[in-house]
Amino acid sequence: MKLIPFSPPRIDEKTIEAVTAVLRSGWITTGPQTRAFENDIKEYCNSGPVLCLNSWTNAVEMVLYWFGIGPGDEVIVPAYTYAATANVVVHLGATPVMVDCAPNSAHMDIEKVAAAMTERTKAIMPVDVGGLPVDYDAYMELAKSFSERFDWKPKSKPQEKFGRPLVVSDAAHSFGSLYKGKRVGNQTDVAGFSFHAVKNLTTAEGGAIALNFQNEIISEKIRQEIYTKSLHGQSKDAISKLQPGNWRYDIVEAGYKCNMTDIHAAIGRVELERFQESLDRRKEICEIYNRILSTNKKCITPTFKTEWSDSNFHLYMLRLDKFTEDERDGVILEVAEQGISLNVHFQPLPLFTFYKSQGYDIHDFPNAFNFYKNEISLPVYYDLSNEDAERVANAILKAIN
């Protein structure tokens, strides 16, 4: 029986050659490949300055840290997301304020977001679940209207200058997606991308932030501030220190260590060169799934396009109409017996032990639970053949019947 994994990365000779070239160059930490990758992303997204770090998690945490978010502050996040979205808030001592999905949607209900805002709200983090962008303009308008309802109480110089909550789009899934015809990355104050192994574009591990503040000069200044924080607060990076007689540096704050390496960046640059090819292939696979699964009324096929957004086909999030959580799990097990790996995106955060211990209750998020309980994510990756995609879809039809 041929096994079909869920989402293996695309690694071929071109990838291996790029990594080998870095190894032979003698420069394997943050260096010219990382800087070039940042510029590639900036150009691709038509965004402000980009900073690549070792994960989405650390990249976004560095932004919140720079903004001065800490104890007593609140950050609005979805209940329906991966744990990293809320974990970065917890790391800084702030409070994640979880908001339920809109009915039959994986996205936050923006009316509930507005209702959840208080004078302690310092940031809003909408998530592009599955690669389908949220309505960024609506979130930006909501943040900009903060002063109409609340007094802004800054606790840091960035907050004092900014004058409102920060909008950080969790675009971990949506690199290459479109919002109102333009690529995701420049629509909110900050866009955070993930390049984890299962993402459409991977660096094995890695992430990036695109900074879209008042203008290019200000955004670049903030990028440098965050970069310093990501290198233990060191005033010079390795490239600068290698200049003749330029070894001396200062530690200007107690920062962190989360830079991206040139090894990882080299993988990402290969991925980006052929990214459209990957997107086109993912779309073809999703269309095969749609064609076969839409013949069964129990199958609720995913939304890949709205009035404002176009997905990058990162996930194929099938839902099984009127199935319970146990029945959904039974389908996954039966299909697994045929050598096919499926997944679920996501378990709502209030289902987890840690967040339950913090007082979050899944009963307060009925839409998130209802979306989760019958959701199954199907394999979507470049090397998945048409025949294997058909095999996956037919195995699901057999299992649900």
Which structural traits does this protein have?
alpha/beta, Aspartate Aminotransferase, domain 2, Aspartate Aminotransferase, domain 1, 2 domains, three-stranded antiparallel sheet, 15 helices, 13 strands, globular
Enumerate the strands of the largest sheet in spatial order, edge to edge or round the barrel: 1-9-8-5-4-2-3
CATH superfamily of the largest domain: Type I PLP-dependent aspartate aminotransferase-like (Major domain)
Number of helices: 15
CATH architecture of the largest domain: 3-Layer(aba) Sandwich
Tally of extended strands?
A: 13
* Terminal residue distance: 22 Å
Overall spatial form: globular
Total separate domains = 2
Class from secondary-structure proportions: alpha/beta
CATH fold naming of the largest domain: Aspartate Aminotransferase, domain 2
SS strand fraction: 5-15%
Question: Topology of this protein?
Answer:
Blueprint: H1 13-25, H2 32-45, E1 50-53, H3 56-67, E2 74-78, H4 83-91, E3 95-99, H5 110-116, E4 121-124, H6 136-144, H7 157-162, E5 166-170, E6 178-179, E7 182-183, E8 190-194, E9 207-211, H8 216-229, H9 238-241, H10 262-273, H11 275-293, E10 299-300, E11 309-310, E12 316-320, H12 325-336, H13 353-357, H14 366-373, E13 375-378, H15 386-400
Parallel strand pairs: 2-3, 2-4, 4-5, 5-8
Antiparallel strand pairs: 1-9, 6-7, 6-11, 8-9, 10-12, 12-13
Helix pairs in contact: 1-10, 2-10, 3-4, 11-15, 12-15
